[in-house]
Write a structure and sequence with these properties.
305 residues; alpha/beta; Glutamyl-tRNA Synthetase, domain 3; three-stranded antiparallel beta sheet; elongated
């Protein structure tokens, strides 16, 4: 089935409660889809099961509903889609586009750092496993890259280009512990759900070329990308569960207005009386051209631990 409608999505990881940074991403993706008469899907990205917290997915769904978000269709959970990821990996292997890697974490940790702060895989196992690595039972799977520049135009951050061979190296699509990597799962899911527009935090901007590379190898369409500013603390740390960002408050309207102001969107003439009133204003007045063209902005102090 194909669709010509705009289709966006919000894809939180269930590692803890939603926080202000999550709200900003959800709000932007929701308005971008709804303002264009499109659909908005909810996906729980729990592919990294050891990091998921029991009950966090249900808490996320309840918080979104309390804040007035309404999604289309059923909620997709990555933990139930491993067969689709396995099929995608099998197709890459069949075309010799992916290969097993038996490098240890220590070995990979000793290689050079890219400008993104990630390790550049030197291709140790690219031509096959040597005699030492053949004795290791744990093996990841990496996808081959080349020195072709992956270029795209982000709707907010502008022209982007990355040469994967130089900046990343062959990257992991299935980990040595058997779990599928985010890069593969998100590409397969966006393709299966026919996502046309990805709106998310700018911290994921540097991984987009890897996803475009996989889209091309798997013959999947490339959505349009819009990477909004990431909410950070006064010390410049991204708000996240790991940095103990505060859970969203019960006062939904106040938090929604704060996220709306964070994105420099047109203020309502009068204070909304409830979430329904807020969303009526937000969807009708969504203005992507007003978004701050930066990668990070300080979050309001009351949302920071």
């Amino acid at each position: 089935m194909t669709s010509s409608r705009r289709r966006g999505r919000f894809a939180p990881s269930p590692t803890g409660p939603l926080h202000f940074g999550s709200l900003v991403a959800a709000l932007a993706s929701y308005c971008d889809a709804r303002a264009n008469g499109g659909e908005w899907l909810l996906r729980i990205e729990d592919v990294d099961e050891p990091r998921s917290r029991a009950g966090a997915d249900e808490a996320i769904v309840r918080a979104l509903a309390r804040y007035g978000f309404r999604w289309d269709g059923e909620i997709v959970r990555q933990s139930r889609r491993t067969r689709s990821y396995a099929h995608a990996l099998e197709s890459l292997v069949a075309k010799s586009l992916a290969y097993p890697c038996a490098c240890t974490r220590r070995e990979v940790g000793s290689v050079a750092l890219a400008s993104t702060g990630e390790r550049i895989y030197p291709g140790t196992c690219r031509a096959g496993l040597d005699s030492v690595r053949q004795t290791r039972s744990e093996r990841a799977w990496r996808v081959r890259v080349d020195d072709t520049a992956i270029a795209f135009v982000d709707r907010l951050q502008g022209a982007q280009s990355q040469t994967l061979a130089r900046d990343v190296g062959d990257f992991v699509v299935r980990r040595a512990d058997g779990l599928f990597a985010y890069q593969l799962a998100v590409v397969v899911d966006d393709g299966a759900q026919q996502i046309t527009d990805v709106v998310r935090g700018a911290d994921l901007l540097s991984s987009t070329p890897r996803q475009i590379h996989l889209q091309r190898l798997l013959e999947l369409p490339m959505p349009a990308y819009l990477h909004i500013p990431v909410a950070v603390s006064a010390t410049g740390e991204k708000l996240s569960k790991q940095t103990h960002a505060l859970a969203l408050p019960d006062d939904a309207v106040s938090a929604l207005l704060a996220a709306w102001r964070f994105l420099d969107q047109p203020p309502p003439a009068h204070a909304p009386s409830g979430v329904t009133t807020f969303w009526a204003h937000a969807v009708a007045n969504w203005a992507p051209g007003r978004l701050p063209p930066v990668r990070m902005l300080p979050a309001p102090a009351r949302f920071v631990a």
